[in-house]
Design a protein that fits this description.
It is globular, with a radius of gyration of 20 Å. Helix 5 links the parallel strand 4 and strand 5. Strands 1-3-2-4-5-7-9 form a seven-stranded parallel sheet, sandwiched between helices. A two-stranded antiparallel sheet has the order 6-8. The chain is built from eight helices and nine strands. By secondary structure, it is α/β, with parallel strands linked by helices.
């Protein structure tokens, strides 16, 4: 039988290992921010595009699978299935939820607001409302490409709100996307730090309908970074 001293030594070593090891998060998917958030966890707001607003959650945009894939990376993923939404009003809701996390003690570096297409537009609108340098933002195919139907609204954003952008940005799009592309006009006007990722999958705008590692992995890495 082990002596009492040996047992105490084993318990002491186990305790030291527990506190010395970095915590690994399994991740989870939530429709709204937690009421009592873990301040040390990485929180990612992720907003879908207009396709689901028009066709519902069972459309070919695999929003549930996307959220689950991001959560498996160790993120607390926050995102609901929306109906037809006014971008300005909804970005205000997201900004309020982010401020709620900040008030609850979650540091800005542990919060990322991201979205695809219309969701990317709302991520930028939220950034212009929050004006917080510490928060990260992901814009996936959210800035209108030249000649697209979304170009005019993007240029209007650049003219009216881009200068209020704060934070660090991750911008991604597919080279064959005829609707959206780079966000340099907005980013450069604000003078913020940003990273461009032009993907070459051939899937165009529909690339972000599904949880492909080519964009899930870099977005998750961005959200998990300090």
């Amino acid at each position: 039988m082990r002596s009492l001293n040996q047992i105490l030594l084993v318990l002491l070593i186990a305790t030291m290992i527990t506190f010395a090891s970095p915590r690994v998060y399994a991740g989870e998917v939530l429709d709204a921010p937690p009421s009592a958030p873990d301040a040390s966890a990485k929180h990612l707001f992720y907003m879908h595009g207009r396709n689901i607003e028009r066709r519902g959650a069972n459309s070919d945009h695999q929003y549930t699978a996307v959220r689950e894939a991001l959560a498996k990376k160790g993120l607390v993923v926050i995102g609901e299935v929306r109906s037809d939404t006014n971008p300005r009003a909804y970005s205000g809701k997201i900004a309020d939820q982010v401020n709620g996390l900040l008030s609850a003690g979650v540091p800005a570096k542990n919060i990322t607001v991201a979205g695809f297409s219309k969701g990317g537009v709302m991520a930028m609108l939220a950034a212009s409302r929050l004006e917080n340098k510490g928060i990260k933002f992901g814009v996936l195919a959210g800035c209108g490409a030249k000649g697209s139907e979304f170009r005019r609204s993007y240029e209007r954003f650049v003219k009216r709100r881009a200068k209020r952008l704060r934070g660090t940005f991750f911008i991604a799009w597919d080279e064959d996307d005829d609707k959206a592309g780079k966000c340099d006009l907005a980013m450069d006007k604000a003078g913020v730090k940003y990273r461009n990722l032009e993907l070459k999958t051939g899937d165009g705008h529909e690339l972000f309908f599904r949880p492909k590692s080519v964009w899930i992995d870099p977005l998750a890495a961005f959200a998990l970074s300090d």
